[in-house]
Specification:
Largest sheet: none
Helix content: over 70%
Number of strands: 0
Number of helices: 10
Strand content: under 5%
Radius of gyration: 17 Å
Structural class: mainly alpha
Order of helices and strands: HHHHHHHHHH
């Protein structure tokens, strides 16, 4: 339990909001770890951190989404292709592109509120020249709403979440790693 206490203590540092911002930015461009993983320790350690951590996650996601959009718009042939080949596949990108053509705004909404790779749609939106302000507006509204909901739930049930994390830290950690590994295997095999 020393590790759990150390993680919760470190997440209470004022600079941790910047860590959440940076990691959420990375998740919006190339990382496959859901931002909620970065938000949780600080909020369950101190419920007063819910608002700044939620804002940091929302801003990091929006800036990361804008960066991924610009990669698709201006750097697709170099950086975009490299990101897709290393973190997904060109087949998945072609599927994302097809879905984007057919469903447009709904796909942005869907990737903003679910674990479906937001980064692929952001790169695709830039590559296809989808209106940047519409993309960023929809992303800002729905990604922020997603993080606000998580932040609220963690704030509201902070004591219960803290007890669960302390009691089941290792099983939860192993389960998260296993689910992530299985998800990556599935993504890479498609």
């Amino acid at each position: 339990m020393k590790l759990v206490d150390a993680i919760l203590q470190k997440s209470g540092h004022p600079a941790y909001a910047w860590v959440v911002f940076f990691l959420t930015f990375c998740e919006s461009v190339f990382l496959f770890i859901p931002p909620e993983v970065f938000m949780t320790p600080a909020i369950i350690a101190d419920r007063r951190r819910a608002m700044p951590i939620t804002i940091a996650a929302a801003l990091g996601s929006l800036v990361g989404g804008a960066a991924a959009y610009m990669i698709g718009l201006w750097l697709f042939d170099s950086v975009g292709v490299w990101l897709i080949q290393n973190f997904a596949s060109m087949e998945k990108f072609a599927l994302a592109q097809d879905m984007f053509v057919r469903h447009g705004l709904f796909i942005i909404f869907l990737t903003a509120v679910t674990p479906i790779p937001y980064k692929l749609m952001a790169i695709c939106a830039g590559f296809m020249g989808f209106p940047a302000l519409v993309f960023l507006g929809i992303s800002a509204i729905f990604r922020t709403a997603r993080f606000a909901l998580v932040g609220f739930l963690l704030w509201r049930f902070q004591e219960q979440a803290n007890a669960i994390v302390k009691k089941y830290f290792w099983p939860l950690t192993v389960a998260a790693i296993t689910v992530t590994a299985i998800g990556l295997c599935i993504i890479l095999s498609l």
